[in-house]
């Protein structure tokens, strides 16, 4: 069993890397991406929906770890739960793989987010990107 993490700042290209490098070989693997969860049922502009999907993601991670199901997750590494999840996964015998996707500057990340929004994707504030 494997816990694969796609980590990086907003706008770094986590989903792009997932789709271009990982998906074809792992399309049946469970996936946790709150942005995708929100997009399936509503608008990224709905902060209540974002919170609801974030809570659901936490439940799914716990469920997959308890049931020892391989899965992948996207994260900005901004919360404390990611460390707990990695420790739990290691304790349960998961092979943990972290792919960190970076950009050369906050300005690059902001521009990538602006391009994503123009293409119909979700946005994020400049201040959140800088954090």
From TrEMBL:
This is UDP-N-acetylglucosamine kinase. It comes from human gut metagenome. The lineage of its organism: unclassified sequences, metagenomes, organismal metagenomes.
């Amino acid at each position: 069993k494997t816990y694969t993490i796609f980590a990086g700042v907003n706008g770094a290209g986590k989903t792009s890397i997932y789709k271009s490098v990982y998906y074809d070989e792992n399309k049946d693997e469970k996936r946790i991406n709150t942005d995708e969860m929100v997009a399936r049922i509503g608008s990224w502009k709905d902060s209540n929906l974002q919170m609801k999907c974030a809570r659901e993601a936490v439940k799914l991670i716990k469920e997959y770890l308890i049931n020892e199901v391989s899965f992948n997750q996207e994260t900005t590494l901004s919360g404390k739960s990611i460390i707990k999840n990695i420790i739990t996964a290691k304790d349960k015998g998961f092979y943990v793989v972290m792919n960190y996707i970076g950009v050369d500057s906050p300005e690059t990340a902001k521009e990538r987010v602006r391009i994503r929004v123009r293409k119909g994707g979700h946005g994020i504030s400049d201040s959140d990107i800088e954090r």
